[in-house]
Amino acid sequence: MASAPGKLAVAFRHRATHSGVWATPLGELAATGRTVEGLGIDVLTLDSDGRITEIWVLADELQRILQVHAPTT
Question: Where are the domains of the chain?
Answer without folding.
Answer: 2-68
